[in-house]
Task: inverse folding
């Protein structure tokens, strides 16, 4: 059963008489527990799709169902609850709160969800046990992204949405981060949607959706996903 | 093209730039307004006393002879001497009006009259020259007849001129707060036109001269019972000078406070602008724009707005503020028409403000523009190294959000301290606004309910024992002696009031803490006089009545707080015991029989209600000052809180957008934002209350020495200042927090800050 199902999803921007389609009647399905990569060049519509999946933007027409619930029917408060309970975001630039320590950045999630996982255990899992009391500015980029992953996982969401998670990192650190995302998804049984323009990352995905000018140019299941260790870019 | 960009940048960041404009406007408005006002008063005052040749000294005695004048004139430091007689008179059949009638022996070349209507004064003219303000209040005109009663002798004269006298710029009777032109005035007459009163005792000499006049006169008239009053000690001169100094100080204090805040607001505004334009700066640099043109461009934003605010504020203040203040001054002082006058070089203030703004902007710009294009484009310039909170044991018990806010406050020290400073200014102004108003009001209560408890004071000639006793019986009253005295202590001399009382039933004494004092022996000295001469309880001082030659040595038994009469208070019994003459000048007590007050022995009758009314008139000026403080408090508070609140919102925008993406509700984020503003407001209030108290003391200390106002802060001043500031802070936080609903979550995924 598809955890995410898009039916003729369209996002159109109107500027005077001119219409621009960021997403143009796309339809796809993502299965529970899959590691999906949405691939495309700049302006292809991949970020728009991620924003809509995350409930921070809305469609012009069509529908996206998450667990059979149509996102377009949700009110603002319901969307906030959806983001709090079902979605874990991993940002390109980490978006950690600079005035909170590593531990506090994770524990902050207690405020929006009661049944979060143990922050200390999660931080241990992502290899940051020794940095609990540090502030984000005292960490490297890779370490900050690991905090961001821990923050997404600690809520125990069903879906992880990753927006160019390696975009601000070097190749080696990027691989480590990707490995971590994949590992925790498998370990905690999460569905991951990774948006990227890096075609190499697509090689490790269970499913790859290629976007071009707001349309799906190709959507296929990767029969033989490559190990991240073999990746290089 | 960069100029066009500058205008657009200013428009885009209009809130902080409006704050810069308003603060610069307010600072310059107050400065130019008050300087224009006090300098206008000062110029009018000095040119008036110069034009009318105000005497350099007055010699008061019993009866000066021509030989005294001849002797004085022989001194090279004395240019001219005129003699005259001061007689207390009353317009006939009006029981509570008095006119100081001056009989001139010759021409009037010293302390000349300024004629407003009628004939110029001449020793050959007959008729009377009447106080123009008294005449206006009592409907006298030139050619009217006026009947005067001088110690029981009646004269009737034609009013030949209406005039001002430089000696009557400020004139009040004992126990009064503001000049009462309806009941008190002055008049001048020639010696040759007042034969009906018989022999004249020339009791005043007017001296024009230079050097140490007091010493010269005392040496020349040695052996005579005289008192010398120098120009600087004359009420008209000293009170006017004190008033001018007071305005100068108040104006400077306020202008400096606002300009200081304006500079701080400028610093944060430039920071914010440059921070938000890092990318643009990098692009412009990489395109080849010279560092100098970028410096000029970014400095010009704030300098332009600052110059605009300063120039507009300066002009508006100079034009409007004196016009608002002069009518109040004209109630108090009788001067020719007051006009505002610019202090030389004061127009430089807007330029100085713009230059200062330019300097601080330059310093801020240097921080952002010094790097090369690549570094500006690709670095996170706002990423501040963050460390644990100082004194972490204090904060660890705070809630999670509390700690977060506390860290944000410490992380943005400039912004936070400016918010605290702004709130502090707002509270201090609100507090002193109410403090000033309450202290002034309290003075009325203190004076009429605590110190002067009599209902009526009848001033007159009490040489007739039978009449005096009748009046005493009618009023259930007691005798009072009010005159002036000279005090000597440790080589210092001071003129002061002398009050002799029969008991402490109608005039009570209180110490600094407001505790009632029972004076039994020695003297009680007012705090203002004691402070001036450095006298403490137990000290011995020399004093004599003005015009007398006999000095007395007395121990100061108490230092007392008294609102109006500053000087010595002594019991009649103690005076009798020490052989000091007690001359009754008034009877104080209950309201007397009307028939008695109509007597020729009575000069004036003052009722408590009239005095209270006069005080209320004086309070009008303080109400205006309080309202002015209130307006500036709200302006300062609103501008600072809104501007810095917006800055805080901008700086935390990404964090708040991230929280929204993560699933936080708007209300939770709103609470976080309001909490910080609330804390900074509390900190500002804690510092602001003592600052406001200090400001109230400072403002009250600028009041003339003849008045002693104790600081009285009722509970409502605290409550309104605190609640008012909270309300303002809450309103602005509420207004700002509405922005949270408009946070663009998508931007959180894209901004790299």
Result:
């Amino acid at each position: 059963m598809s955890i995410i199902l898009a039916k003729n999803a369209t996002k159109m921007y109107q500027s005077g008489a001119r219409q621009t389609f960021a997403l143009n009647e796309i339809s796809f399905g993502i299965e529970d527990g899959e590691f999906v990569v949405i691939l495309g060049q700049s302006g292809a519509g991949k970020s728009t799709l991620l924003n809509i999946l995350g409930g921070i933007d809305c469609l012009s027409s069509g529908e996206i169902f998450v667990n059979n619930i149509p996102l377009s029917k949700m009110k603002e408060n319901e969307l906030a609850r959806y983001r709090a309970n079902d979605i874990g975001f991993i940002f390109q630039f980490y978006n950690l709160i600079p005035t909170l320590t590593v531990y506090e950045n994770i524990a902050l999630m207690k405020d929006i969800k009661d049944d979060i996982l143990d922050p200390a255990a999660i931080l241990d899992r992502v290899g940051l046990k020794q940095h609990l009391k540090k502030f984000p500015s005292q960490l490297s980029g890779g370490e900050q992204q690991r905090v961001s992953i821990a923050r997404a996982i600690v809520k125990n969401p069903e879906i992880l949405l990753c927006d160019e998670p390696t975009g601000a990192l070097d190749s080696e650190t990027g691989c480590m981060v990707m490995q971590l995302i994949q590992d925790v998804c498998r370990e905690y049984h999460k569905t991951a949607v990774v948006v990227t323009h890096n075609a190499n990352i697509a090689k490790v995905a269970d499913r790859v959706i290629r976007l071009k000018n707001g349309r799906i140019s190709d959507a296929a299941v990767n029969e033989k996903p490559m190990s991240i260790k073999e990746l290089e870019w | 093209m960069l100029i066009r960009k500058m205008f657009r940048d200013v428009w885009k960041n209009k809130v902080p730039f409006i704050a810069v404009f308003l603060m610069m406007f307010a600072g310059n408005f107050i400065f130019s307004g008050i300087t224009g006002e006090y300098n206008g008063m000062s110029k009018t005052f000095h040119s008036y006393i110069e034009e009318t040749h105000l005497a350099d000294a007055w010699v008061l005695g019993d009866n000066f002879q021509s030989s005294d004048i001849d002797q004085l004139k022989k001194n090279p430091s004395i240019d001219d001497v005129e003699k005259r007689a001061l007689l207390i008179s009353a317009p006939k059949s009006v029981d509570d009006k008095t006119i100081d009638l001056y009989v001139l022996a010759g021409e009037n070349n010293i302390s000349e009259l300024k004629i407003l209507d009628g004939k110029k004064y001449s020793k050959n003219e007959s008729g009377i020259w009447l106080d123009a303000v008294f005449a206006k209040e009592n409907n006298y005109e030139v050619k009217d007849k006026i009947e005067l009663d001088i110690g029981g002798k009646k004269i009737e004269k034609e009013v030949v001129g209406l005039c001002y006298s430089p000696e009557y710029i400020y004139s009040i009777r004992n126990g009064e707060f503001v000049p009462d032109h309806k009941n008190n005035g002055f008049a001048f007459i020639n010696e040759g036109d007042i034969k009906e009163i018989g022999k004249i005792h020339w009791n005043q000499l007017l001296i024009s001269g230079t050097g140490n006049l007091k010493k010269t006169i005392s040496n020349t008239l040695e052996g005579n019972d005289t008192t010398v009053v120098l120009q600087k000690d004359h009420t008209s001169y000293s009170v006017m000078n004190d008033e001018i100094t007071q305005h100068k100080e108040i104006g400077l204090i306020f202008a400096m406070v606002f300009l200081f805040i304006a500079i701080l607001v400028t610093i944060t505004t430039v920071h914010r602008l440059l921070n938000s334009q890092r990318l643009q700066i990098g692009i412009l640099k990489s395109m080849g724009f010279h560092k100098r043109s970028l410096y000029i461009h970014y400095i010009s934003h704030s300098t332009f707005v600052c110059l605009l605010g300063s120039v507009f504020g300066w002009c508006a203040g100079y034009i409007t503020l004196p016009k608002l203040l002069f009518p109040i001054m004209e109630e108090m002082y009788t001067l020719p028409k007051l006009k505002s006058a610019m202090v030389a070089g004061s127009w430089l203030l807007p330029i100085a403000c713009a230059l200062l703004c330019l300097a601080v902007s330059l310093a801020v710009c240097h921080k952002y523009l010094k790097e090369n294009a690549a570094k500006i484009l690709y670095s996170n310039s706002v990423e501040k190294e963050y460390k644990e909170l100082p004194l972490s044991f204090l904060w660890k018990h705070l809630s999670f959000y509390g700690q977060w806010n506390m860290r944000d406050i410490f992380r943005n020290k400039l912004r936070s301290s400016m918010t605290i400073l702004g709130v502090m200014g707002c509270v201090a102004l609100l507090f002193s606004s109410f403090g000033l108003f309450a202290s002034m009001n309290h003075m009325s209560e203190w004076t009429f309910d605590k110190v002067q408890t009599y209902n009526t004071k009848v001033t007159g000639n009490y040489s007739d024992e039978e009449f005096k006793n009748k009046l005493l019986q009618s009023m259930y009253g007691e005798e009072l002696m009010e005159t002036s005295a000279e005090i000597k202590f440790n080589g210092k001399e001071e003129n002061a009031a002398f009050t002799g009382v029969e008991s402490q039933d109608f005039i009570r004494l209180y110490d600094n803490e407001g505790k009632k004092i029972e004076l039994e022996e020695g003297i009680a000295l007012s705090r203002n006089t004691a402070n001036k001469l450095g006298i403490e309880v137990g000290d011995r001082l020399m004093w004599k009545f003005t015009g007398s030659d006999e000095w007395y040595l007395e121990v100061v038994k108490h230092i007392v707080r008294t609102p109006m009469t500053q000087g010595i208070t002594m019991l009649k019994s103690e005076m009798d015991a020490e052989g000091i003459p007690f001359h009754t000048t008034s009877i104080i007590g209950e309201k007397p029989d009307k028939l008695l007050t109509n007597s020729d022995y009575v000069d004036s009758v003052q009722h408590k209600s009239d005095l209270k009314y006069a005080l209320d008139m004086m309070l009008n000026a303080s109400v205006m000052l309080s309202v002015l403080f209130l307006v500036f408090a709200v302006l300062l508070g609103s501008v600072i809180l809104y501007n810095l609140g917006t800055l805080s919102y901008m700086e935390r925008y990404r964090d708040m957008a991230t929280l929204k993406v993560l699933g936080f509700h708007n209300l939770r984020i709103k609470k976080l934002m309001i909490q910080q503003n609330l804390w900074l407001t509390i900190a500002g209030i804690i510092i602001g209350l003592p600052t406001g108290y200090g400001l109230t003391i400072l403002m009250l200390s600028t009041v003339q020495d003849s008045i002693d106002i104790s600081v009285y802060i009722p509970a409502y001043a605290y409550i309104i200042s605190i609640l008012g500031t909270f309300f303002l802070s809450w309103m602005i936080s509420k207004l700002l927090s509405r922005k949270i609903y408009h946070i663009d979550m998508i931007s959180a995924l894209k901004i790299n800050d």
